[in-house]
Design goal:
Length: 85
């Protein structure tokens, strides 16, 4: 309230609505920019999480394939050893 009185005295009643309008536009623009920035950061975080999840899935699939290949190789070796005996 005190700030409004000081602004009225310093700027005068003719300039006060113009200044208030400019201030309101500036605040709205700042809010828009901050929301855009926040949305951008959130989207980047989602993309990074998705890449990490896909990398983990690929690593798990590779481990499972390696384990299956080893099990098949062990099974083949055991079968060959039994056949020669």
């Amino acid at each position: 309230m005190i700030i409004l009185v000081i602004a009225l005295v310093v700027m005068g009643p003719q300039k006060l609505p113009e200044i208030a309008s400019s201030l309101g536009k500036g605040i709205a623009q700042f809010k828009r920019a901050s929301n855009d920035f926040r949305n951008s950061i959130e989207q980047e975080a989602r993309v990074a999480e998705e890449k990490e999840r896909l990398a983990k899935e690929e690593q798990l699939a590779a481990q499972q394939a390696a384990e299956q290949g080893k099990a098949q190789a062990d099974g083949s070796a055991a079968g060959a050893g039994a056949a020669s005996a």
